Amino acid sequence: MAEKLKELPGKALEWWNKFTSRQKTIIIAIVAIVIFTFAIIVYTFSRPQYTRLGTYESSKTAAEIVKILDDAGITHKESTDAMTIDVLTSQLSQANLAIATEGYVPDSLKYTDVVETGMSVTSSDREAMQTTFYEHQLENMFSKTMPVKDVSIKINRASNSGRLSDSDTDAYATITVTVTDDFNAANATAMAKAAATALGNDSTANITIIDQNFNLLFAGGDDYSSMGIASSMQELQTQAEAMVTNQVKKVLIGTKQFNEVEVSSHLSVDFSDYNKKVTEYYANEGREVGMPSHEDTFTTESDGSVAGIPGTDSNTENDNYTGYDYLGTGGGSSSSEERSVDYQNNMSETNTVTPAGSIDYDNSSISVALIKYREYYEENVERQGLLEGITWEEFKENNRADVKQEVDADVVQMVAYASGIDASRVVVVSYESPLFYDKEGFFETVDTTDILSIVMIVLILGLLAFVILRSMGTKKKAAVEEEPELSVEDMLQSTPPEPEVENIDVETKSDTRKLVEKFVDENPEAAANLLRNWLNEDWS
User: Fold this and answer.
1) Structural contact between residues 356 and 270, judged by C-beta atoms closer than 8 angstroms
2) For position 403, what pLDDT does the model report?
3) pLDDT tens-digit profile of 33-49?
4) Which class for 37: exposed (0-12), middle (13-18), buried (19 or more C-beta within 10 A)?
5) Residue 414's Cα: distance from chain center in Å?
6) How does DSSP assign 375-395, residue by residue?
7) Facing residues of 264 across strands?
8) Confidence check: pLDDT of 310 > 60
9) Residue 148's pLDDT is what?
10) Cβ contact 149:108 at 8 Å
11) Which residue of 36, 119, 141, 158 sits 20 to 30 Å from the alpha carbon of 446, by its own alpha carbon?
12) Which contacts of 205-209 are long-range, i.e. CB under 8 A and separated by 24 or more positions?
């Protein structure tokens, strides 16, 4: 084996020496082209592909975008002036989503960027451009400060005809917003007031706000009408239901047992205001009654004896006595007492106010739908022998229906605890939904780039093989058509005779030499073959 390996370099060199210099040059050039082409292909398909994300008006804005991209882990590069940013083509959608998630809004337009000045601009044109400027300003302001995904504003301003009354006319504004879950009626009112202030309106009567589904969020005016109050109460119920729904979803998705979770809750909300007042009276500690605030007492006593002469004669002995003595029988007693007491008890008052919007959980209900996917891969189904006697399409048709699953009691209890609603008013259904994945074919696994690369490689290799085979065929043909060896006599005989020359002894060599030189000049290839034969004979 070792000897054969040692022979390989010699055989390779022998094979290489069969080619002429021109053929060797062609082969080396083709190999260089093939290697260069492969290098270009590898570089082209392996180097990162960047796509222009945007060109920004200031380095400050570009710096904000770069920070968002860095936080999101997106590969990017900037131009030398730091105004243009490119990102990887595969991460372009992620970059746009990251910028939108961060709520980035470009710097607002300058007045001169929208409103043109010059002799050719009429006053009506300038007013239209000013209106556009106001629209952009409000859109940027609301996009930065309000919980909205998108905002579009259309302003209708009164045309200025030069009359004083036109300056007192309020502008009209229609604001269309794509709201988030955090948007509420207070945000709509704040937007309307801010728009009225920016437009110079005296009130919000001409401001209308609608959402992306054309629901009326603000109808204009500063006072809440009965319809506005009802709308706010309805919004309160919607927010409460959304809160309960999110809590239930968070718990069920956290189990990682279901692919889809849909929750719908109906909360019974009491929109009535209640005022309850409780007054309690109590005595101090150690007493059965309260402290007296007023007391009248009358007491009289008598022992039954005669105190003096009946009448008023006895008054001379006691100047302070104003009574009247009666003649008694000589014995007995009498007593009289009269009291009047007012007690001051301690008092405690409790005033309880129950605002509107309390949830009656006893009359509320919640419904939950759970979906779990069952995945069928054609390769796995075929390997399991489930396609015996039927086709893959028939198998999909036979297993296309959703299958209802039994719901664990713990799931129902989990929903009840998360929502605060009794388990008897919780309904949970679960289904198993099939998903089918067809077997991928060759053209589904290989993209267009791979096919083009393969075709290019095959063409290059084919061209190289064609050149090598053609050169080898030319070499063999040249060997077959090699002219027979000629002797000096034959070559001399084939040369036309020259005129007879005198003085043969002296001029013979000279004439022969001339004939040989003439033959070499006229037949260089034949002379080369003859010389090669002589050399081979000498070496052999």
Assistant:
1) yes
2) 92
3) 888 887 777 776 677 77
4) middle
5) 30
6) EEEHHHHHHTTTTTTS-HHHH
7) 367
8) no
9) 87
10) no
11) 36
12) 205/170, 206/170, 206/171, 206/172, 206/173, 207/172, 207/173, 207/175, 208/173, 208/174, 208/175, 209/174, 209/175, 209/176, 209/177
Residue 432: count other Cβ atoms within 10 Å of its Cβ: 15
- The percent of residues in the chain predicted with pLDDT above 90, rounded, is 10
When pLDDT is averaged across residues 183-196 and rounded to a whole number, the result is 86
- 8 Å CB contact between 114 and 75: no
* Rounded-to-integer distance, Cα 146 and Cα 52, Å: 30
pTM recorded for the entire structure: 0.39
Band of pLDDT at residue 505, cut at 50, 70 and 90: very low
Helix (H) or strand (E) holding 450: helix 448-480
DSSP 39-66: HHHHHHHHSPPEEEEEE-SSHHHHHHHH
Per-residue b or e along 161-178, where b marks 16 or more CB atoms closer than 10 Å to that residue's CB: eeeeeeeeebbbbebbbe
Which position has the token pair 């590969």? 75
Q: Which helix (H) or strand (E) holds 427?
A: strand 426-437
Whole-angstrom distance, CA of residue 400 vs CA of residue 411? 26
The answer to whether 145 and 105 have CB atoms below 8 angstroms apart is no
- Say whether pLDDT at 504 is over 70: no
User: From CA 268, how far away is CA 119, in angstroms rounded?
Assistant: 66
Contact 76, 87 (CB under 8 A): yes
How much is the pLDDT for 473? 62
The Cα 151–Cα 135 span in angstroms is 10
pLDDT tens-place string over residues 53-85: 877 767 777 888 888 888 888 888 888 877 888
Name, in order, each residue with C-beta under 8 angstroms of 342's C-beta and a sequence gap of 6 or more: 292, 293, 294, 295
Count Cα neighbours of 388 within 13 Å in the Cβ-side half-sphere.
4
